[in-house]
Amino acid sequence: MSNEQGRVFREAWIAGVTRHYPGEPKPGYVAPWDETSDWERACAAAVYEQVRQFIEVSAGSTSKLSRAQRGRFVALCWIAQIYKHIPDPKPSYVADWDDLPEWQRETDADIFDHIERSG
Predict the structure, then answer these.
(1) Which residues form the domain of 89?
(2) Which of 33, 34, 70, 114 is the most buried (most CB within 10 A)?
(3) If we measure between CA atoms, which residue out of 110, 103, 24, 100 comes closest to residue 67?
């Protein structure tokens, strides 16, 4: 997992938040890579790599997944990383797909699409 992969993930996140968040997003949501914590950088790099590998082992069949399925995959990978790095995370950090706000679901789907295109 590289910093570059994490940075690409973070940039896709910021682009999605900017596009989908209703109103003005919290500063932490759009903080640049250099201002994110080490654990968040590690999570971003790991999830990028998980998505990339999923696309690779699926031999491009991920393009047949629905937008919600692609976003849900990103969300689940992120939740696993949260549990890895934070012993007792806030419930909002590990919320199930159906409990995420619409803007976050859309952003997660955008991230998957961005990684797929970057392939």
Answers:
(1) 3-118
(2) 70
(3) 110
pLDDT in tens, 20-42: 999 999 999 999 999 999 999 99
CA distance 22 to 69: 23
Distance CA 15, CA 70 (A): 17
What is the per-residue pLDDT for 2?
74
| Residue whose C-alpha is closest to residue 13's, from 60, 78, 61 | 78
Q: Is the pTM of this model over 0.85?
A: yes
Average pLDDT (68-96) is 96
Asked whether 67 and 109 are in contact (CB, 8 A), the reply is yes
Cα(65)–Cα(75) distance, rounded to whole angstroms?
15
